[in-house]
Write a structure and sequence with these properties.
heterodimer, A: mainly alpha, 0% strand, elongated, B: 255 residues, alpha+beta, four-stranded mixed β-sheet, globular, Methylamine_util_MauE (chain A), transmembrane (chain A), membrane (chain A)
C-alpha cells in the first residue's frame, strides 16, 4: 500500500526543490496528501466501522429475524439464505471492529465495500420487484407498508460505499493500528 | 528524475513491524470458522415427515388447519390459504373486514379454507411463545369442534398494544369465549397447558417459510398470492373493504 504513495511524495518534494514556480501546481494536484486528509480517513473508518458494528450486533442478537429478513429478499434459496443470514452479522462485527481499530484498513475496506455493493444490489432488486421486506405487522395505522423507504436505504448505503472507497484508495489514516505497527 | 532515491523509504516502511500475513491469515481463519459454524447451524432439515399429533382438520404433513374439515366440499372449488399470526394487527384487520365472509363461503362449501397460523412475530416482538400458544390453542379448539369461534375470539382479544403478547390464561379465556364447555373445556385446557400441538405449530411455520411466505397476512387463492407485493389491489380491498371477499375471489379466479 505504501509503495504507491511513497514515490509520489518524494517526487513532489523534488519538484518543489528544483522548480519553485511549478510547486503550487504540484501540491494542488496532490491535495489528498495534505495531512488533514488522514483525518478524513479516520472519519470514514469510524462512520463505516461503527455502522457495521452496531448493525452486526443488532442482527446477531436476533438471528431468527435476520434469517427471515434475508429470506424475504427472495434472492437466495431457503437454506443458503439462512446460512448467509447467520454468517453476515458476524462478518459485519469483525469488519466493524477492524475498521474502528484501523487494522488492515485497505483489506477490510475492500471487504466492507463489496458487502455494501451486495446490499445495494439486494435492495435495488427487491425494489424493482416491488417486494416489501418489513412484514405488514408493525404499527396498525391502517396503511399498508410500501417500498417508499428503499431510496433512503440505497442513499445511505451509497454514502457508506464512498467511505469504503476512500479507505481503499487512501488507507493510511491517523489513530490507526496500521500506523502504530507499520508506520 | 531521482527515482531510486525515492523508492528507498517506501521499501523500508513495508518491511518493518510484524508480518501482515499473520494478520491476514488470522482474519481468513476467523471468517472461515464463522462460515463453517453458520453452515452447521443451518443444516437442511432431514426432511422427515412430521410424525407428531395431528389436530382435527389438520394435515399429515402439518400444513395448517381446515376449520370445516367435516364438510364435504364440491370438487373444483377454490382453495383459500390464509397465513396469519394472532398477534399481527393487519391480520386482525383482515379478520374484522372479511373473516365472517370467508367463513360463510367455507361453511357453504364454496371454498376450501385453510388457516396457517405462523409464529415469526414472536421472534420480531421478542415475546415468545405468544404466537405459538395462540396457534396451539387454535388446534386444541379444533379438536373440540370450535376452531372458527376460537379464531374469532383470539383476534378479538388481541393485545391493544402490539408486543404485549398472550398469556396461557388469555388462551384459556379464548377457549371459553369460543363456547367450549364441560369435559371438552377440561381437555382444551390440558391441551393448552401441555402445548400438545407445539410441534405441529412449528412444522406449519417452517413449511410456510419454505413456501416463501415471509409476511402476514398473506392470502393465496388457488395458489395465486395476494400480499402487499402481489395483487396488491385485491389485497388492499380485503384489508379495507368489509365483506369484499366474495368479489375478490371472483376477480382472482376469473383472471
Amino acid at each position: 500500500m505504501s509503495l504507491s504513495t511513497g514515490p509520489s511524495i518524494s517526487l513532489s518534494r523534488v519538484a518543489e526543490q528544483t522548480e519553485s514556480v511549478s510547486s503550487s501546481v504540484n501540491t494542488r494536484a496532490k491535495w489528498h496528501q495534505h495531512p488533514a486528509m488522514e483525518w478524513v480517513g479516520v472519519a470514514a473508518r469510524l462512520i463505516l466501522g461503527l455502522t457495521y458494528l452496531v448493525a452486526g450486533v443488532l442482527k446477531a442478537r436476533d438471528l431468527e429475524s435476520t434469517k427471515l429478513d434475508t429470506r424475504a429478499f427472495r434472492i437466495l434459496p431457503y437454506d443458503l439464505a439462512n446460512i448467509w443470514g447467520t454468517f453476515m452479522p458476524f462478518l459485519e462485527i469483525i469488519l466493524g471492529l477492524l475498521l474502528i481499530a484501523g487494522l488492515m484498513t485497505r483489506m477490510t475496506a475492500v471487504l466492507g465495500g463489496l458487502l455494501m455493493i451486495a446490499f445495494i444490489i439486494g435492495i435495488s432488486s427487491v425494489w424493482a420487484r416491488g417486494i416489501v421486506i418489513q412484514c405488514g405487522c408493525f404499527g396498525s395505522n391502517g396503511k399498508l407498508p410500501t417500498t417508499a423507504a428503499y431510496k433512503w436505504d440505497i442513499l445511505r448505503d451509497v454514502g457508506l460505499l464512498l467511505c469504503a472507497a476512500w479507505l481503499v484508495i487512501w488507507p493510511r489514516t491517523k489513530l490507526s493500528v496500521d500506523r502504530a505497527l507499520w508506520g | 528524475m531521482p527515482r531510486p532515491d525515492s523508492r528507498a523509504p517506501a521499501a523500508k516502511i513495508s518491511t518493518t513491524g510484524p508480518s501482515k500475513l499473520v494478520f491476514g491469515g488470522a482474519l481468513a481463519v476467523a471468517l472461515l470458522a464463522a462460515i463453517v459454524i453458520a453452515v452447521l447451524l443451518n443444516r437442511p432439515a432431514s426432511h422427515e415427515p412430521y410424525a407428531g399429533p395431528v389436530p382435527t382438520g389438520g394435515t399429515k404433513g402439518a400444513n395448517g388447519l381446515n376449520p370445516y374439515s367435516s364438510l364435504t366440499v364440491r370438487t373444483g372449488v377454490p382453495t383459500v390459504d390464509v397465513y396469519e399470526d394472532f398477534q399481527c394487527p393487519f391480520c386482525k384487520q383482515l379478520e374484522t373486514q372479511n373473516g365472517e365472509a370467508m367463513l360463510a363461503q367455507a361453511e357453504a362449501g364454496k371454498i376450501r379454507l385453510v388457516w396457517h397460523p405462523v409464529t415469526f412475530l414472536e421472534d420480531n416482538l421478542k415475546n415468545a411463545p405468544s404466537s405459538t400458544i395462540a396457534a396451539n390453542g387454535l388446534y386444541c379448539a379444533a379438536d373440540a369442534g370450535k376452531a372458527a369461534t376460537y379464531h374469532r375470539a383470539a383476534f378479538a382479544g388481541q393485545p391493544k398494544k402490539e408486543g404485549d403478547g398472550f398469556s396461557v390464561a388469555d388462551i384459556k379465556k379464548f377457549g371459553k369465549q369460543a363456547g367450549i364447555k364441560g369435559a371438552a373445556l377440561t381437555t382444551f385446557d390440558r391441551c393448552v397447558d401441555k402445548g400438545t400441538y407445539d410441534g405441529y405449530v412449528s412444522a406449519t411455520a417452517d413449511r410456510a417459510s419454505r413456501d416463501d411466505v415471509n409476511s402476514t397476512p398473506s392470502v393465496f387463492i388457488d395458489g395465486e398470492e395476494l400480499s402487499p407485493t402481489k395483487n396488491s389491489k385485491e389485497y388492499g380491498k380485503l384489508l379495507n373493504e368489509p365483506n369484499s371477499f366474495d368479489s375478490v375471489i371472483v376477480a382472482v379466479t376469473e383472471k
